[in-house]
Amino acid sequence: MAAGFFQPEGRRLSKAAVTALMLPFFSVIALVFLWPLLSLLSLSVLEPEPTLAHYQRAIDNPVYARVLWRTLVIALWVSAVSLLLAFPVALLMARSEGPKLAFITACILLPFWSSVLVRTAAWSVLLQRKGLINEGMQGIGLTAEPLKLLYTQGAVVVAMVHVLMPFMVLPIYGALRNIPADYARAAAICGAPPWRGFLHVTLPLALPGVIGGFILVFLTALGYFITPSLLGSPKEMMISTLISQQIREHLDWPFAAALVGLLTLFVTAITLVFSRLFGFDRMLGGRK
Question: Which domains does the chain have, with CATH numbers?
Fold first, then answer.
């Protein structure tokens, strides 16, 4: 019977074996994700009666369109800044070995030992008017009085970059680690300076990891809640904060469900576009 789970060459699992192994995973996904999501989305079209009025309200009101646009802009900023900071770190990791690599990896993974709430609260302490950053700038003469750093879009972007940057570093590191060192040496032998070898050899080969990290951080940032809620102001409200407000303050579950539906459609469309352009295996740092 066990032989039926393997292909004739006896080395690879058959489709039946793969299905049996993946069935528990997909069952959990259906139970804890798909079913609650579908139940919530049903409220947007069935409460108080079958209607699309909640979606029409979300689309017609320019306030909600601005919130969605602001969410997109902040997610793009977070992804771009994370990429600029993460690539040098990933490159250093790929060129390091032994204790040096272990130390850098520990620094990247150390934030996972504390919750997002703790890290966000730490930023609120640093960015307040009498916080360490304002006092430091005043101490060295950069500013004459405290700046408003907290409850701004910049505070939200900085804190989200701090939280999400490891998700950018690891895919890029995986892609860079798979590039043979002989390629760079071959480029140098052919007369290419280091910067040209990097632009024409290393960067194109690392692009799958860059794409994977970017889309992972971008999609996560679109639905982020804790950091924008604690560090942002109503003027910098993101879609997740708006959804929470509709549920907790207005008790408007159908409209909140409509906002969730729009966000889900938006994220799904972006994912399909990236999948169409690059393929899921390349998005995750794999090879075609």
Answer: 41-283 (1.10.3720.10)
